Every structure is written in C-alpha cells, then in structure tokens.
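Re: the request from the purification team.
They wanted to know what the chain is likely to look like in 3D before they choose a buffer screen. I agreed to run a prediction and write the result into the notebook, where they can find it.
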Amino acid sequence: MKKRFRYLTYILAGIALFSVILITKDKIAEAANRVYLNETDLTLELGRYRTLKVYGTKEKATFRSANNRAATVASNGRITARGWGSTTVYTYVGNKTLKTKVTIVQMNKKNVGLTRGKTTQLTLWGSNNSTTWKSNNTKVATVSDNGLVTAVGNGTATITATFNGKNITSEITVFGLNHDSKVLEFGGRFSVTRPNFGSKVKLKVEGTKNKVTWSSSNTKVATVDSNGKVTSRGPGNAKITATVNGSSISADIKVLQMEFSELELKKGETFDLKVLGTNSDISWRSTNKTVVTVDENGLVTGEGSGTTKVIAEVDGMQIRCIVTVR
C-alpha cells in the first residue's frame, strides 16, 4: 500500500512539473512576442521632445496625438511639447494600439533677477501639488514648498521643481550695488580728497555677471555710462538705476555745489554764500578769521587783506570757497 502511494506521488509530481514547464514555455513565448514602448508615462518641458521606440516587432508603427495643442508626434515617433497640459499619444503597430500619457509642464519664469530680501513666485504650469521644490544654494535664495523664492544674498542659485521624476529649473540671480547712496560735488575744484568726495563715482553691480542696463532719473544732475560710471552735472538729486534680468536696483545720488567757488570782497563787505542741491544743515567756518569770518548762515565778512578758504560741511562733505579780501 505504501509502495502504491509512493508511485502515485511520483506520478502527480511529474505531471505538475510538466505543467510548469509548459506554462513557463508559454510565458517565455508570450514575452518574446510582446510589443511595448520605451515610454508609457512621459513628462516633457515645453519646447522639449522625446522619441518613442517600439520594441518586440519589426512591423512599421504609426503615431497620433489626441491633442496637438499640447504635443505633436512625428512619423518617426518624436513627441514635441507644444503647450502645457496633457494628451495621449497612440502608437499603432499590427493589430495593437499602445498608449503613452504625455504631460507638458512649463516654468513661469526661467531667469529672474532679484535684490536682497525680495521675493518671486515660481509656478510649474501643467503640474499639480505633488511638485517638490529645491534650491541648490540657500545662501543666495531659498524656496518654499509652493515655489515662493526669497533672495538671501548676492550670487546665483538654481531652483529645481521636480514633477513625475522630471526636473525643471529656474536661474535666480541676486544682486546689489556697491553704493546705496552717494554725495558728489559739481564744479568744486577745491573738494577735499576723501572717499565720499569728488565729481564722479563708479557704481558696480555685485552678485552677477549678466548684462546690466544703467539709467539716470535726472541727467541734469547726474549721468551714468554703460559701465556704471556716474558723473555730476549740476546740483540736485537723481536716482541711478541698474537693471538686470528685468529687475532693478537704485542708488540715490545727491550733487552739491557751492554757489561761488571763488569770491572777492572789500574790507567790511559781506556776502551771503549758499550751497546748492541740499536742504540739510550746514556748518560754516573760515580757515583764517583775520581775513574773513562766516556766521552760521553762511554770511561772509571781509576782515583784512589776504586770501583764505570758507568751508561748508554738509551731507558728509566739505565744500570750499576761496575768498580774497582787497
């Protein structure tokens, strides 16, 4: 009895093994004959392309896009993203129809210029809330979970939005000026040589090598050339603006001028000196009171023969007038 049972077990095991072999062969044959595509779920950035490839057959394939406004497909299977959104590309080969889901995304801003502390909102059109955001340089710019970028320090950062395994980037340039404000003198042949004094100043944009466009709000007060060199033209105030990637930053320029840089008086004669281009308080002094004196309002009085200087200190500058008493 035990012997018969053993033989029966062997027979059943043999049948099972034979069935497995037959099933495996069928699956191998099926896999060998399977027709498939290299892409079934594709995400493209607007303007980019990807070519479909058909595997498992030598038959000629034809292609069709369900929405040509989103993506077109050429006769060789090349899919080109035309507008953000989604579509399905159908591949026809033999009696089979294969489908590829195509999602087109677009970053709303590809190159952004910011000044420190400013923000800009990045949006990946065509994506959803599964998009993740990352900055490669948080010392320059940070980005929130919803794509809000904050400028932190001068330099360049790449912000990457990842959706469906696809990385879409935006370049953020954070820049600033070497001077926020500057006081210059016009027509002052006797200005003291110090960093804040003079009739010209060179403004530089820090944090970028991109093209800078310069402009002046009042060319009668100060002009600026293509390299950021500012030249005083007359008393008053002007804003010098640097524009990078559509964003701007300005420096306040104040130009001062002594009403007269040279003056002749007779002994006992007076003259009311003025500094043009400012409403700030002025401190007046004479370098030789035996020749001239000057009061707190700039009234100069000839005291004795000779030549001396009257100095007005205002807005961090010293402006001189040479006074000769005959």
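For the purification team: The first strand starts at residue 36 and ends at 37.
Please add any questions underneath this entry.
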